[in-house]
């Protein structure tokens, strides 16, 4: 689809236009990734209400922190998709877009009148991506589901937390990975369309996504027939590798190789550990994990984090203090990477957003644009993209 000059953003997807029905997190995160790569995103929202996350506190100048955080670089149109006039708008937009993204429960798009067969009739070759909790098939296919549910079902929670105390990940990892896989599926479909002209339909399941991340935990189960239990922030197969308390806070160590182990014993002034058969290699250290973790903890708690940071940097031992959100957002490394960008919002004013972590060293994509006000681009899209008359636009928007 040809993108108008006023709509273009730099990036490898600057020739792609996405019709985005998604709400809350998984879908909007996927479309944000695409927008960061230059795609034009037309976000369809309910008039007078919009994306559910527009109503999540805290607010500033009436704008939700949640919505502002994950909807940069997008256009918002407020359309009643259940009305006949609204349906026609969507039909016309389908003809003008390359990708359709939604994260409704399976079957909702069909009930709205925008099922896959309708889409293909209007725009053969259109790429379709559906993100849902359990996917479109299987006994759970029509169930509603949320991040915490798929974390629980996938095995992820069973591996997270302290022994006998499974915990949800601090980040909504199910939704975020859903957004990542959704974006990846669309990128793959774009390449396929370039080769064959065929528009693929991606069926992305949040549960599938997390199960796919089990990796070596699944491998271990297939070999041993046993499921792992949570062990806190320590590693199941490497010791010492985890969280430790220093005198004034917490930090992590990642003594991943035998070379690092030798350096570590020197850094903590325990050369005798190198000849101790209990710690002779990683296999023995894992076998005696509780003892070694306790011994390391006794040493680290005697000094401040700044001391250990200096010592471990001198010895080239992988480590890090545990930073909070404020500390990492102001960290020199993040500043040097220019990951935090300032934008000007028409209602909120000046504020900062996290920009895309994808960087091309030979392409400057510029600063992100601010998340849209509800319906901010309705008239522009209807007039400039669809060629509607002003009278027709006013009837649709009830102006």
Automatic annotation (TrEMBL):
Gene3D superfamilies with a match to the protein in the record:
Crotonobetainyl-coa:carnitine coa-transferase, domain 1, formyl-coa transferase, domain 3
Provide the protein name: Crotonobetainyl-CoA:carnitine CoA-transferase CaiB-like acyl-CoA transferase
Answer yes or no on keyword Transferase. yes
Which keywords fit this entry according to its UniProt record?
Answer: Transferase
Q: Does the keyword Nucleotidyltransferase apply?
A: no
